[in-house]
Predict the structure.
Amino acid sequence: MKKISLFIMIAAAIISASIVLYPHLNVSFDFPHTVVNKKELPKKVLIIPLNKGVKKHYLDSVVSYLTHHFPDIEVSIADPVKIPKSCHNGRRYRADSVLNFLDKIKPDSVYRVIAVTSDDISITRKLEENGKIVTYPDRGIIGYGRKPGSVCVASNYRISKNIYSFAKVVTHEFMHTLGVSHCTHDKCIMQDGKGSGKPLRESTHIHEICLKKANIGLSGNSKKLLVLNMKLK
């Protein structure tokens, strides 16, 4: 014990002398900090009700469906926002104009914005009918999103009696913003409706390949997603 006490006294004396003789030295007695790998914070997804928005049970269904398939996102709901009159063509709200509006109001802190409304929306769309391409200048639709992009919009105007279908529409458009294209997988929500809501109504799930693409898009690896899209068209 005497030897140990003597050793401690000598060490203390040396350190004290070092501080006196070399005050410019920053001597620290802190123990090394343990490095903790923090989990990446969840991506924030903001749902914005437009005009009167949709009823609460529709929103609940949307949030449940999204968070079930994408547990790494954090969904929140904003206060309702009025759609500018400039987005209305006298008959419907133009979905492309709505997306431009959403781009302007999207907070920088938010990863994606999903707008929901009970109003009718439309776009100019080309559809193949009887072997011919027909252009519809004001085609009513249930959802629209850029691929990829940061905003999308969904309307329950044409599916107001089917809560589950609306949740699938929202998720379909959200996945477009992640860079996921339409698919041909049986009963997958990412099928192209081709002007009809039937494929979506009859869909039952998200195919594993489409979900894989979405998660790659969610990770921000656009190059890997491009390669996967080319391999799995």
Observations:
- Strands lie at 43-49, 73-77, 93-94, 112-117, 121-129, 132-141, 143-145, 151-155.
- The first strand starts at residue 43 and ends at 49.
- The mean pLDDT is 85.
